Amino acid sequence: MREESTAAAVISRLQAHGTEVAFGIPGTHNLSLYRHLAGSDIRHLACRHEQSLAFAADGYARASGKPGVVLTTTGPGALNAISAIATSYGDSVPVLLISPGMPTHLEGRDAGFLHQVRDQAGAFAAVTGRSRRAANAAEAAELVDQAFNAFTASRPRPVHIEIPVDAMDATATPPKPAPRAVRPVADPSTVREAAELLSGARSAVLLLGGGAVVCGESSLELARSLRVPVVTTVNGKGIVDEGDPASLGACLRLPAAHALLESVDVVLAVGTELGESDFWRDPPWRSSSKLIRVDIDPDQLHKNAVAEVALLGDADAAIRSLLAAVEAAPDRDRGLGSTGELRAELRGQAVIDGAPFVGLTKALSDALEADAIIAGDSTMACYYGIVHLFAQSAPRQFLYPTGFAPLGYGLPAAIGAKLAHPDRQVVVVIGDGGIMFTLAELATAAELRMPLPVVVVNNAGYGEIRDEMDAAGQPRIGVDIESPDFPAVARALGGTGVRPSNLDGVSAAIQAAFTTPGPTLIEIGSSLLGEPIVE
């Protein structure tokens, strides 16, 4: 192989791994990357802020299943992306962020260099699966290979690669591409042990998390074979069609789901950490049911709940092995027959919290095609509304920052999702507080002429925190905020803005937005939904 500069080696390796889009903002210290990016087949998308770059890459990755790639400059550029990278870490989303770093002779020093950070790679080490500094082209190419292999063969947490400024144009001979990694396969004896537990159970539940996102077909076959219901976490929403008789939906935080998990003989949990952010309670796991866990991450097999049987390996392969192993299981109903009654109970509980959003979810349902993607934000309209009240038939259709739960995610994530699926409908649902965190990305969508409805539920503040303050009997501070004229702001940034007078108008506005070049901000006030709306 011939010698390449470090920057050239990075871009060529990204292209070799099938990278289609790089989300980036150029800066003084990463111009070498951009020189070689210009000669590649990789499309570049510039957002208006680095936090949005990484949110957009996250949305692209969740919607497509392919790693998102982010390019920033040093210091403020890189650190602006940290909270978004932490979001990808919390939800196990494959995002690769590449940034320059301080020159080799200044690493770790406080010398007043432009954009200097004493330990930039260390800052990212706290919010990524790995953060490494490449000294030359050979190391940089190897680190890109390692990142993509990690996304394939292990829990897909984000990766940061730092390249010293003085190494960007230094040349070396990159190594040959590393062999593609393969996913581990669960031990057959452990599969048999798990199958015996499931076969002998009088009652059981199949619980699917984000790590089971490609397991829809096998999971449904197993549920039907064992005649058990399926519940999912929010990140698992739609893995099994939520209209299927076996599905109870993304109901894990609801009391009836807690009671179900605590009443059955066996729970088979696939690709989930069983965390507080899944159950909305601490400690999250309170069941005495025998627990079987399937996960590709060995650290997950007993996290938050000790498993009776732990299967380390690829989730889909493990489920298919279990399916073969339970073929001779006694033919009895292990809970599937009660799903209709349970579904009604779960919906009743969901409506208690989500009543203000029943009309909104219906308006969305009336406007959207079956394969539409909803990019949500950390707003009650999503976690009390859409999660429980809007049924979806497939995974990767609800993009939502479950674990880290930042505000501002929805709009840039939708831009990333639309790049991944330009022919599908993508819609944003966000609160008035959240939209202000990434409002500038309306200009990005306008520049792309992207037909994107952005539904803003406006309750004049941070409603969730306001309610918590009220419940605690403490004075309200910093939660009642004045919003701008959102439709006017949307128009000023190159889009369209409307304020419908009723819910039928919301549905019509969403449908019109799909044929309008550029984003359409659709503002919904509290009075429109008939009772106070909380974010």
Provide structural commentary.
- The longest helix is centred in the N-terminal third of the chain and has 17 residues, at 137-153.
- This protein has helices at residues 6-16, 31-37, 50-64, 76-80, 82-90, 120-125, 137-153, 188-200, 216-226, 255-263, 276-279, 315-325, 339-354, 358-367, 380-389, 410-420, 432-435, 441-447, 463-471, 486-492, 503-513, and strands at residues 4-5, 21-24, 43-45, 68-71, 95-101, 130-133, 159-164, 171-172, 204-208, 230-232, 266-270, 290-295, 309-312, 373-376, 398-399, 426-431, 452-458, 496-498, 519-525.
- It has a six-stranded parallel sheet, sandwiched between helices. It has a six-stranded parallel sheet with strand order 15-14-16-17-19-18, sandwiched between helices.
- The chain is globular, with a radius of gyration of 24 Å.
- Residues 531-535 have low confidence and may be disordered.
- The chain has three domains: 4-172, Thiamin diphosphate (ThDP)-binding fold, Pyr/PP domains (Rossmann fold, 3-Layer(aba) Sandwich), CATH 3.40.50; 188-334, Rossmann fold (3-Layer(aba) Sandwich); 345-529, Thiamin diphosphate (ThDP)-binding fold, Pyr/PP domains (Rossmann fold).
- 38% of the residues lie in helices and 16% in strands.
- The chain has 535 residues and is α/β, with parallel strands linked by helices.
- α1 (6-16) packs across α2 and α14 runs parallel beside α21.
Explain briefly what this protein structure is:
The chain is of the alpha/beta class and 535 residues long. Helix content is 38%, strand content 16%.
